[in-house]
Amino acid sequence: MLTDDFGLYFHIPFCQRRCGYCDFFSTEGKQKLLPDYMRTLIREVKMIGAAGERPRAGSVFLGGGTPSLIDPRQIANLMQEVRRAFRLSPDAEISLEANPGTVDFDRLALYRKAGINRLSLGVQSADDCELRMLERIHTFSGAERAFHDARRTGFTNVSLDLIYGLPGQTVPMWERTLDRVLSLSPNHLSLYALTLERGTRLARAVRRGGLPAPEEDAAADMYELAEEKLAEAGYRHYEISNWAKDGDGKTESEINGSTVAGISRFPKFACNHNLRYWLNLPYLGLGAGAHGCAANRRYANVYSVEKYIERMGTGRTRRFPLSPATTRSHIRAREGEIRETMWLGLRLTEAGVDREEYRRRFGEDYYDRFKKEIDSSLTGGLVEWTGEQEALRLTPRGRLLGNRVFQLFV
Length: 410
What we know:
By secondary structure, the chain is α/β, with parallel strands linked by helices. The chain is 39% helix and 23% strand. The chain folds into two domains: 5-251, TIM Barrel; 353-410, no CATH class. The protein has helices at 34-51, 72-85, 105-113, 128-133, 140-152, 171-182, 201-207, 216-232, 252-256, 272-278, 305-312, 334-345, 355-362, 366-369, 371-379, 396-400, 402-406, and strands at residues 5-12, 14-15, 27-28, 56-64, 87-98, 118-124, 158-164, 188-193, 235-239, 242-245, 250-251, 264-266, 283-286, 291-294, 297-301, 326-331, 353-354, 383-386, 391-394. A hairpin with a 2-residue loop joins strand 9 and strand 10. The radius of gyration is 21 Å and the shape is globular.
């Protein structure tokens, strides 16, 4: 059952240097604007909080860009205003994405003091040659140091990001990265297949022949190897690209307020904020380039740091969840919400799309609406029912061909 509990996403589009593979909205060489940007972000927090009459919030995620470029004192100020403008849950997950090359023990200790309780380190590879190819500013030894510093400063929830399927990367090379990362025993791992995004420096290098093109078959082998090794290491594969250590587990009520009790659908260290996306629950996007989905509306803020600051300076109020920075917005139709709930939920590799939860939300059985699509996917070995047909989820084969299934519901 949906509640008025929101996830808060803050986009921090500043980088010391943009990575060659990245096409997310970010800027480099504009750190002088960071103090003004953070003041503007607080202005947006106050405005949206007031428009929503101090709504409840259950998670906070600072992504980018490189949020670890922000002074910890500015993070503390932001979190103070968040607590004033929103009814933030006492046990809210508060995540910060960090580049290992931008943090040290003292900085991490101050982030922890500011209220950050989950750290996501962009390690990407344990091979320094691959890191240089990706134009990362850290080495793997630097990433190891950042991880150990995080532990020493009290972070009990640390996630690491990795990228596989790189130009010239072989399965044995990927296995070495996995082994070195697993030796750290992080609580959570996000593993992403490289996508050569048009216009990025890495894509141009491959197109011009300076680097070999990534091989899809090798990337599939790397994914299957990761599934095997992470399972052996005690991680639950709860989403197509995400694995987490187990614990007591998250019940439905911890995620979306449903009354289904005693069912540990997700591992203890699953990313609570990102689960909101995959369960198609409401979240608010704040900052330049941020996207949100709340009050039955999808929206996006302006893709410019300078224009974001300028637009927020007008003081013009708008109906919740929009702010003066919003440049795109549309009402989400019921049909769109239903289809999104199906394909996003199918990303949850263990839990899948819960049939009863869907029925409570939409007043119908999704098999009645999507019988043709589901039957063809069942016949093709891409999806399967769990238990007594309580939920529909991808099979191991379906996880490799997920886009083929998702397109049936888009």
